[in-house]
Amino acid sequence: MPALLLIAHGSRDPRHAATVAALVREVRAQRPGVEVATAYLDHCAPRIPQVVERLADAVAVPLLLNRAFHAKHDIPAALRAAGSRLPVADVLGPSPLLLAALDRRLAEAGPDLRSAAVRARTGVVLAAAGSSDPAADAATRAVAAEWRRTRGWAGVEVAYASAGGPRVPDALAALRAAGAERTAVAPYLLAPGLLPDRIAAAAGGADVVADTLGPAPELAALLLQRYDEACRTAAAVPALIA
Length: 242
Hints:
Helices cover 48% and strands 16% of the residues. It has helices spanning 14-30, 48-52, 69-81, 96-109, 116-119, 134-151, 168-177, 194-202, 217-241, and strands spanning 3-8, 36-40, 58-62, 122-128, 155-160, 182-188, 208-209.
C-alpha cells in the first residue's frame, strides 16, 4: 500500500503540532499496515519537500475541512514546487464522520447532550475559521443544516472566528431569540490555536463549550476513508488509459 502523507497547515502554537501527532497515532492504530508521514505547509517542520523526497509511493491527504484556498492552491503548488506528482485525496468535509466527531466533543463537554430531549431545547453555534471562498462558506452552512436535521437540535447557527461575520456572540443571540433554552458552542476546527482560543473567549455566554475536533477516532477514520478513495482513483487511472 502507498504511504499516507498527511498534509497539515501548521501553526506557531505548539498545541497544533501536538494534536496532529496525536491524530497520526490514532490513524496508525486504526490501520497498522499503512505507513503514515506528516508534512506541513507553514510554521512547522517537516515541510513538504523534506518528506516527499523520501517517499517512493504515497497519497497526500489534506488535513482540511473545506475545499478553500489551501486545498485549491497552496497544497498543489507546494507539491509541484517539490517536484512531486503524488495523488491528492479530497478534503475531509462534508462527511457524517465529522458530525459524529462534533457530537463526541459536545458530549464530552456536556454529557446530557446525548439526550434527544435536551438537544431539542439546545441551540448550537458551529464556530468555524471562516473563509473568503463562497463555496467553503456554503459547505460549512450545509454541515450546520445537516447537523440540525439529523440530531434534532433546537437550532444550529454558523459563526466565524475570522473573515466576515457573524461572530459567536451574534450566533448565540440569534439562537436565544429563536427560542433555544440552552446554548452550546462547537468549534469546527481541527486543532488548538489562535482561532479556537478566539472562539472560546467569545463563547462566555454559552452553557457548553466543546473542544476542537483534535485526534477524534472519527476524524482518523475519515482520513483513512479519503486515503482509500484516492488509492482507488489512482489505481483506476492506468486502467482507463490502457
